[in-house]
Design a protein that fits this description.
Elements: E1 2-6, H1 10-25, E2 34-39, E3 43-45, E4 59-61, H2 63-68, E5 72-75, E6 77-82, E7 87-91, E8 97-101, E9 104-107, E10 111-113, H3 121-124, H4 131-143, E11 155-159, H5 163-180, E12 187-192, H6 202-216, E13 219-222, E14 226-230, E15 233-236, E16 241-243, E17 246-249, E18 253-255, E19 272-273, E20 286-288, E21 293-294, H7 308-327, E22 340-344, E23 350-354, E24 359-363, H8 364-378, H9 386-391
Parallel strand pairs: 1-2, 1-9, 2-5, 9-20, 11-12, 11-17, 12-13, 19-21
Antiparallel strand pairs: 3-4, 6-7, 7-8, 10-18, 14-15, 15-16, 22-23, 23-24
């Protein structure tokens, strides 16, 4: 028997850990039940931190963890899924193609930045979505020091006033001063089509965020979007022109395209609709998790967000349940009633909220300490020691607050 997991992000990593944990508890051997994880590299990209400087350091190796729990790592990119023959088509780095059969499949393929067909976006826009994107942005920012201080060199436009956009924007003043000199006066502008910045953060948090932006000197343009980009700046939908040599696109994400190969219903973000066990209804043997799945968190109408916080716990339930079906033991319904948000505000600190209503609990330096603990400790893989790694993956405790 074989469980195949596609993806080495937070959901994929915890799916592997949880699957191995249940296999161990039930006394099955790796030969009796193989667990295989497919990914281009045996590495967790710490994606929630890609707005920070030195993004090339924001990865964590998984090889030793996977070896410790007897999970087979399959290097390559999953390109096809045949749900009838139960096989995944893989392309390796050198172009070799191969197939891997499965008895249960966990789709943990994550998400990608949504890039609309805006003139100049693909040529001139940067992002902090994937590791390569963040590295390219960092390289570009450092190159600014060699350019004349004119024509928008010191101006950054961030398109998108949601979570990612705010974190990228509030980090920019300090990053640019580190590159251009402490006396530099960088200009950062957030552009968002909504009527307010941080539209989903709630009435408690929004005034704190707005005060932080003012403290950092960050400008906002609300009710307008980016109409076009070129190498020297952006034109907004209301006709305003902003000269800027750096434009960061942070306006929404979609489930990775591979989910489209599963013959099942998806939402408008491309996520596969799943039942409470994270199975894809009507597709035998397939589970979806993390950003690839639209899953109910509770009985109150709340659904998992495309976030690290939800992906880790969803992954643990998906891996457990895929393995449980093969071992003939009961599956567990995914649930995640507790929800917290910790938003980095750069040199202005952070905010920490609890609950789906995002009740403000911590602000400023106190919240910043929590954010740093989350970013540097909590979201990293467990240490590569078998007992500790398996113990970290109990679905009922992963992601507990």
């Amino acid at each position: 028997m074989r469980v195949v997991i596609i993806g080495a992000g937070f959901a994929g990593m915890y799916a592997a850990l949880s699957a191995a944990r249940l296999r161990d508890i039930r006394g099955a051997t790796p030969k009796e039940l193989e667990i295989a994880l497919i990914a281009p590299e045996p590495t967790l990209v710490v994606r929630p931190r890609l707005y920070e400087a030195k993004p090339e350091t924001l990865t964590a190796p998984l090889t030793d963890v996977l070896k410790a729990i007897d999970v087979v790592y399959v290097q390559g990119s999953a390109k096809t899924i045949d749900t009838k023959s139960r096989a995944v088509g893989i392309v390796t780095a050198d172009g070799t193609r191969k197939q891997l059969s499965y008895d249960r499949l966990v789709v943990a393929t994550g998400s990608r930045l949504f890039r609309p067909n805006i003139p100049g976006l693909s040529e001139h826009g940067f992002s902090v979505d994937q590791l390569d994107d963040a590295v390219a942005l960092d390289k570009h920012l450092h190159s600014l020091a060699n350019r004349p201080a004119m024509n928008g060199r010191d101006t950054v436009v961030v398109a998108g006033g949601g979570f990612t956009g705010i974190e990228a924007a509030t980090e920019m003043p300090a990053r640019l001063r580190a590159i251009l000199g402490k006396d530099a006066r960088p200009r950062v502008v957030i552009v968002d089509r909504n009527k307010a910045i941080a539209p989903d953060m709630g009435s408690d948090s929004r005034p704190v965020i707005e005060d932080a932006l003012k403290k950092l000197g960050i400008e906002t343009r609300i009710g307008a979007g980016v109409a076009s980009l070129d190498q020297s700046g952006v034109t907004l939908s209301d006709g305003e022109r902003i000269e800027a040599e750096t434009v960061i696109w942070a306006a929404g994400i979609r489930a990775a395209p591979l989910t489209a190969q599963i013959p099942a219903e998806r939402d408008n973000l491309g996520r596969l609709l799943v039942d409470r066990g994270l199975r894809v209804p009507g597709v035998a043997g397939v589970f979806a998790t993390g950003d690839a799945a639209r899953a109910a968190c509770d009985d109150a109408g709340n659904y998992a967000l495309m976030s690290c916080q939800h992906a880790t716990r969803m992954g643990a339930f998906a891996g457990n349940n895929a393995t449980a079906e093969l071992l003939g033991v009961p599956t567990r319904p995914y649930h995640q009633e507790a929800y917290a948000t910790c938003l980095d505000l750069g040199e202005a600190g952070a905010i920490f909220t609890l609950g789906w209503a995002r009740k403000l609990k911590l602000v400023g330096d106190e919240a910043k300490k929590t954010k740093q603990q989350i970013n540097t400790v909590w979201i990293y893989p467990p240490r590569p020691e078998r007992a500790a790694a398996l113990a970290s993956a109990d679905p009922e405790h992963v992601g507990e607050l």
